[in-house]
Amino acid sequence: MSGTTRALRSDAERTVRTILEAAERVLSRNPAASMEQIAEAAGVARTTVHRRFASREALVEAMARWATQQFAEAVDAACPENAPPLVALYQVTANVLRVKIDWGFTMRVMDADPEAGKVYADIAERCERLLIRARDAGVLRADADLDWSRRVFYALLHEAAACRDGDPDALATQVVDTLLRGVGTSRGLS
Amino acid sequence: MSGTTRALRSDAERTVRTILEAAERVLSRNPAASMEQIAEAAGVARTTVHRRFASREALVEAMARWATQQFAEAVDAACPENAPPLVALYQVTANVLRVKIDWGFTMRVMDADPEAGKVYADIAERCERLLIRARDAGVLRADADLDWSRRVFYALLHEAAACRDGDPDALATQVVDTLLRGVGTSRGLS
DNA sequence: ACGACTTGCAACGATAATGATGCAAGTCGG
DNA sequence: CCGACTTGCATCATTATCGTTGCAAGTCGT
Questions:
Q1: Interface residues of chain B, partner chain A, Cβ below 8 Å
Q2: Residues of chain A with pLDDT > 90: what percent?
Q3: Nearest nt by C1' to B34 Cα
Q4: Nearest one of B65, B146, B78, B77 to B107, comparing CA atoms
Q5: Which residue is nearest to nucleotide D29 (CA to C1')?
């Protein structure tokens, strides 16, 4: 019985995953896409989508929860509170990029869901703390605006995730390098 | 007759402008907002919107054209092909910010319209040339990836436009500074 | 082969947005 | 005051999407 249940639930969950991934794919191109289009992209009937997710809202909520979990795991794996700031920064970047490349749309609209929004805010705070550590370690400028720095960091992550080519590690290097040094020379500025 | 025509057309165009601005305001908060909501925000009846714009698509197209014109003028005013690269960079940033703060939504979805898309691509090319001049002048690093630099520039503009507070000049200084120097110190990087 | 479960298909009702129209009322220049 | 023009309001048909349901067919473990 447990075997049966496990097998059946495995099937069901595979379908759910397929739908979630298709939804991400379709909605990232057209946020106003219909359930029909999502179902078609997932290779299932529209009714199947409605059986798994009571409403469109429930679908995006499920997407948000899933992406949130991936997001949090990506951050956790980088040990942003313990590792040396520069190392943590790089690790966070690489790990988050891997998630964001596949879940860009969901991560942009995640804050709508209250549950995901909490995790999102929590991660922002952890990011803030990491930046403080980085500043104290002399990695960030002493006069750096932490909120602005964090938002630039997010923006660079977003931009790097838009290049779907190249491996996450190379992109992470580019992101951290640009975040800390910019793209200019040292000359010519006040 | 010409006086009458001018006065009447002035009224009509004032209404059109009001609708366009309301649409930007509403759609930036909710891209799926209905014509009803847009009309309400503009303080006119829904039918009036439909009289001015045959369809929703036509409305967005008009928004795209208008924002495109503002965008192009903002770039032109900065003389990006003649002024010293650093000066031009700053001027472009400040001018574009002024537009982007009020037309953020439209400028994000502009590429849908073919007409606006052409101007958009043209501006991207002018930006690219400005960056080349900046690199040749030693403002940008010699090994800087120009496409990546441009996209970082765009991303910073986008982020700065999200702060609706603070004057565009101060924001422009921050954007250019971050673009060229980043937020880190010179130490601690390879 | 049996049973539990899932899926596709076809069809349904409900709801909301869209776009069009006729008419009365209003403004404004001449 | 007249005429051109625009707007608001009420109303209409059309369409798309949504969410639900019943039923037949299929899979998979036992």
A1: 31-32, 86, 137-141, 144-145, 148-149, 151-152, 154-156, 158-159, 162, 174, 177-189
A2: 87
A3: C17
A4: B65
A5: A4
- The percent helix, strand, coil of chain A (3-state, each to 5) is 75, 0, 25
Please return the burial class of B13, using the count of CB atoms within 10 Å of its CB with bins 0-12, 13-18 and 19+: exposed
Question: Which residues in chain B are closer than 8 Å to A138, comparing Cβ atoms?
Answer: 185, 187-188
pLDDT tens digits, B62-102: 999 999 999 999 999 999 999 999 999 999 999 999 999 99
Give the 3-state secondary structure of B48-113: HHHHHCCCHHHHHHHHHHHHHHHHHHHHHCCCCCCCCHHHHHHHHHHHHHHHHHHCHHHHHHHHHC
Q: How many CB atoms lie within 10 A of CB B51?
A: 12
> What's the confidence (pLDDT) of residue A149?
98
pTM, to two decimals: 0.91
Interface test with B, best of A183, A185, A186, A187 (most B CBs within 10 A): A183
CB-based contacts of A100: which residues, under 8 Å, 6+ apart?
A107, A157, A158, A161
